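Support request, priority: normal
Reporter: lab tech (M.K.)
Component: structure prediction queue

Hi team, I submitted a job for Mannosyltransferase from Nippostrongylus brasiliensis yesterday, and the status page still shows it as pending. I've pasted the exact input below so you can check whether something in the sequence is tripping the parser. The sequence length should be 470 residues. Please let me know if I need to resubmit or if it's stuck on your end.
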Amino acid sequence: MLFLRSYFYIYLHYIPANILYHLLPYSKIALFITLRCTIGVFTLLAEFALYKAACKHLSISIGRFFVLISMLSTGMFISSTAFLPSSFAMAMNMYAMAAFLNEKWFYAIFATAVSALVGWPFAAVLGLPIVAEMLILRPKWKMFWYYAAMSGILVCGSLLTVDSYYYGKRVLAPLNIVLYNVFSEHGPDLYGVEPLSYYLKNLALNWNLAAFLVPCAIPLSAINYLYSWKASAEHKKWGIPVHPTYWRHYSSLFLLFCSFSLWCLIFFVQPHKEERFLFPIYPLIALLAAVYKSLNEHLMDHQHQLDFSIRGDPLRVCVGKEWYRFPSSFFLPQMAVDARSRKRGVQLHFVKSEFAGLLPKYYPQGKIPFITRRIPTEMNDMNQEEMSRYVPLDTCDYLIDLETPDQTTDLEPNYGSMTDTFRRLYTHPFLLSSKSHWFYRAFFIPRVSARKTAFANYTIYQRIPPTTRA
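Reply from support: The job had stalled in the queue. We restarted it manually and it finished. Here are the results:
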């Protein structure tokens, strides 16, 4: 007889369940629901780890779309709290993917080992990116085998100890699962077979359009990569970049897609199909769909117009008369990325305008509470202008202003006419309250409001280099 279930997997859940039992001693239902909430928290932490890794190594927008798509997915809602080995494998695979993107190889291998040996053996397929990266693309043979052996000994030793105790004989449950499902005469087909449409319907119900965006992620991201990273002559052959060095920054995403494709290839052709068999690739669906969504917007946005190689760090975004209307520095990104993925910090600064009052000032550099205890300089309680707040116009990399050509002064010129210094990066219509009827400002009436209101262009200007620094 083959013993297919590991008591070690149950034991991992027994630890929090035992604590919860003493808090909820009289309700098995409450205990079970609370345990599932605990599983959900464990999955949440895994998802957060993958989100941080995606933001750091892919892009912030990909990370945000990953979270958004996961939140709206019925599949993630079901799988993230299920008391199933495949759900456990899904969570551990998220930890493994996060470690893979962060190049923390021991954690990546160990999480994959736990996912496959404690959770579900077939989840080892999702370790393909780690194997390919460490054995083929950037060979680290000794490190790989050392970490793999260490992880195998730790996990298999724990499994053998616990399962052999409970079964009364030496048992390695993951091996038995493989023997039963792959090498037995009947395998799992005894429990029913389904057509391919079963998985397609399941993906459509649980992921809506996101599941069908995944195949588009790789070609779109490859086009974006070719567009953003110009290949040098030594990386090209027949005019096409083929050198592995050129594709190094892209390889992690491609390998994740390969692991997703391999999983689908293996399980979609199996006669026996269950929804839980798809759980381990649910995070990959969200991540790859996020890649499509993010890069689709990237190709349509203005990032391709940015070139930070000729600009300082941090970038200076300046406002003049718009100091009181521009939302605040909270609406500026912490980090901006140009078309070649060069990163720069972003700071808000003021240029002189007709306003002659006291403007805000940055906190001094340092640690809390020392900077909050320091008496600020160049301040007053009379709303008197402090000239130290301003930076010269020629030090600004970008300028935000409302174009009002009929209201220009020497201190508030029409920057749009300074074509030798600035060029428009982006403009958007802005309602002019002083030239619009109060009623039609408040209530939009088709065809009528357009005649009773006036608009001007709210514009982001990009300074034509060179930009000087004071």
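DSSP finds 16 helices and eight strands in the chain. The first helix runs from residue 7 to 23. Let us know if anything else looks off. Ticket resolved.
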